[in-house]
Structures are given as C-alpha cells and as structure tokens.
Amino acid sequence: MNRIPWNKGKKHSEETKTKMKLARVGRKPALGKKWKIKDTTNYSLSQIGEKNHRWGKKASDETRRKMGIARSGERNPNWRGGVTAKNEQDRKSKKYKQWRKFVFERDNWTCVLCNRNGGDMNADHIKKFSDYPELRFDVSNGRTLCVACHKKVTSQQQTELNNKIDHETGNKKSQVWSGLRWKNNSSGENRSTSQVERHAG
Which residues, at least 6 apart from 123, have a Cβ–Cβ distance to it below 8 Å? Predict the structure, then answer.
C-alpha cells in the first residue's frame, strides 16, 4: 500500500531555502557516488550511543503531547478515514494502558485464581469489555489472571454465551445430540432383540 509523503504539496519558505543553501556550502555533491558498505557502517556507528545528538535527552510531557497531536488523525500517514472501531481505539489508548497498570499493581502481579506471581499476566474485565463500555476503565472491574486461567475463564464465558443463545433460540445442541444418542441406542436394542429372536427360532 502506497503512503502519501508527509511533505507532499508543501513548499519551503525563502528563509528555509537560504538556510539549506548555506548548509551545503563547501560540501562535495554526493550525486552519482556509490556508497560502500564500509561507509554506511561507519556512519551508523557514528550515530550510536553517546555520539548521537539525542543521547541523554528526553522530551518533556508537553513536547510529547504536541508530537502525539501532530501525528494523530488525518495528519498520520496511516490514516484510513477513521475506520478503526471504538473498541480497538479504547484498547490502544493511554487510558487503557494505565488501567492495566493499576490492576496489576493492586493485585501485586499475582493471578487472583491460582495465586501465581509474576510472568505473563493479563488484565481481565470481570464484566465484559464489549458489553459494559462504562466500566472499561474502572479498576474495580479488573482482575489479574495468568495466561492459563485467562484462557479457562474466556472458554467458560463463551460456553455460557453459546448455551444462552441456544436457549433463547430454542436450538439446543445438547437436546439434538441426546435425541440422536437415544435413537441410536433404541436401534441397537431393536437389533439385539431381533438377533436373539432369530437365534432362539
């Protein structure tokens, strides 16, 4: 997928053009030059660690906020017209990350079901994320679960949901399978009875 360059349609001011021109004074043009692997490697090494002009520097909260705004929405090269679902937006939001952190810290990074401490943990919503949007960032609606317990809980919830749907639609799979088993058992009993009668005759 082709991306639209961030500077497409933008023009430099006369002041910027003058600065760029002065910055190139005395430099040898690189046009037509064939770069060697050694040259590119040396350049990369010259930008690593303390040699990098950004080494030890950290952007302020205000700067980071401005950078975020500058890359959000239609300003972002990955913008697709606002097609991201609200659920996905909330899961990727800073508020959601803070909610997970608060849940983990409150539970001391320990699974509330099996008491396993540390390792891969999931912040689980007690009342489902999709069904209760007003409780998505409520810490009291969260709990820490290890990966194994989270899978068990999710599987159990899915089973309960399927049973509920079957009950509401009157299409219980358990009844269907029970009927099939009863029919097969009955047929088996009839076959056994017929075989006994034939042997007896």
Answer: 99, 100, 103, 104, 142, 143, 144, 145
Task: Quote the pLDDT of residue 72.
Answer: 82
Q: What is the pLDDT of residue 176?
A: 45
Interatomic CA distance for residues 142 and 122, integer angstroms: 10
Fold for 88-188, please state it.
Answer: His-Me finger endonuclease fold (3.40.1800)
Q: What is the mean pLDDT of residues 137-161?
A: 90
pLDDT of residue 136: 92
pTM, two decimals, is 0.46
At 145, which helix (H) or strand (E)?
strand 142-146
| Cα separation, 15 vs 18, whole angstroms | 5
Distance of CA 77 to the CA centre of its chain: 20
Question: Which H or E run contains 103?
Answer: helix 94-106
Domain boundaries, the chain: 88-188
Residues 180 and 161: beta-carbon distance below 8 Å? no
Which CA distances in Å does 122 have to 10, 39, 97, 149, 180?
45, 46, 12, 9, 41
The 8-class DSSP code of residue 92 comes to T
List C-alpha distances in Å: 40 to 27, 45, 161: 18, 9, 58
